[in-house]
Automatic annotation (TrEMBL):
<comment type="similarity">
    <text>Belongs to the peptidase M28 family.</text>
</comment>
<protein>
    <recommendedName>
        <fullName>Endoplasmic reticulum metallopeptidase 1-like C-terminal domain-containing protein</fullName>
    </recommendedName>
</protein>
<feature type="transmembrane region" description="Helical">
    <location>
        <begin position="24"/>
        <end position="52"/>
    </location>
</feature>
<dbReference type="InterPro" id="IPR053973">
    <property type="entry name" value="ERMP1-like_C"/>
</dbReference>
<feature type="domain" description="Endoplasmic reticulum metallopeptidase 1-like C-terminal">
    <location>
        <begin position="86"/>
        <end position="215"/>
    </location>
</feature>
<dbReference type="Pfam" id="PF22248">
    <property type="entry name" value="ERMP1_C"/>
</dbReference>
<keyword id="KW-0472">Membrane</keyword>
<keyword id="KW-0812">Transmembrane</keyword>
<keyword id="KW-1133">Transmembrane helix</keyword>
<feature type="transmembrane region" description="Helical">
    <location>
        <begin position="64"/>
        <end position="81"/>
    </location>
</feature>
Length: 215
């Protein structure tokens, strides 16, 4: 019974997402029935077994039996009275400067901001609430993934692109890297026998870089 009411109150808190400490009241209200039930059972048991233990022999230890029963009832009553410990929200935050160029090499867009990569189910809601408190908007990548290569985000890990639907973008200020990235196109070489084309580039920049190509 305690498990059933504990599960019900937990589901209510998850569905309605109680803010602050209001969720604890929902949890405690759900424990009224289990506490009343186990209290009734314990009173009935004590009223039955205590007189019966008085009829035992001199070698019996009635106090030990009653104490064990009291501990058992206490665990059943208080075991679900204390809610489960909340787990921390996990997410990555990357401060980004995004530079978009035309094919001729001229800059067409420059913007800065923060890319947030959630790791847990409700992290997105938490980030949106924190952004609103800071007078900012945490927006999904949305159309950026249709218009720009890799959503226009410098993903630190390639696997993050697979969770792009959960990612959030918060506009912010730009910054300058200590060492600029210099990417130069050297040329290409065609191989008619293998029907392949090899492109050559030179790149100079930071100690962590990723290079993505789209046909």
């Amino acid at each position: 019974m305690a498990i059933m009411f504990y599960t019900i109150t937990t589901l209510v808190n998850v569905l309605f997402k109680r803010e602050s400490f209001n969720w604890i009241y929902v949890h405690l209200i759900g424990q009224i029935v289990p506490i009343a039930y186990f209290s009734s059972v314990s009173l009935t048991a004590f009223a039955t077994f205590i007189p019966m233990q008085g009829r035992g022999n001199a070698g019996a230890n009635p106090e030990l039996l009653i104490a064990l029963f009291a501990v058992l009832v206490g665990l059943l009553v208080a075991g679900f009275l204390t809610p489960a410990h909340t787990s921390p929200e996990r997410f990555y935050v990357y401060h980004c400067t995004r530079e978009f160029y035309h094919q001729n090499g001229t800059l067409r867009r420059l913007e800065g901001g923060f890319y947030v990569h959630p790791q847990d189910r409700y992290t997105g809601d938490l980030i949106r609430e924190l952004a609103i408190k800071s007078r900012a908007n945490a927006l999904p990548l949305g159309d950026e993934c249709e218009k720009e290569l890799y959503c226009g985000i410098p993903f630190y890990q390639n696997s993050h692109h697979g969770q792009r639907d959960n990612g959030l973008w918060i506009k912010g200020n730009t910054f300058t890297l200590p060492e600029t990235i210099d990417l130069q196109y050297i040329g290409n070489q065609n191989d008619s026998n293998l029907n392949t084309t090899t492109f050559s580039f030179t790149v100079k920049g930071t100690d962590h870089m990723s290079f993505y190509v789209s046909p």
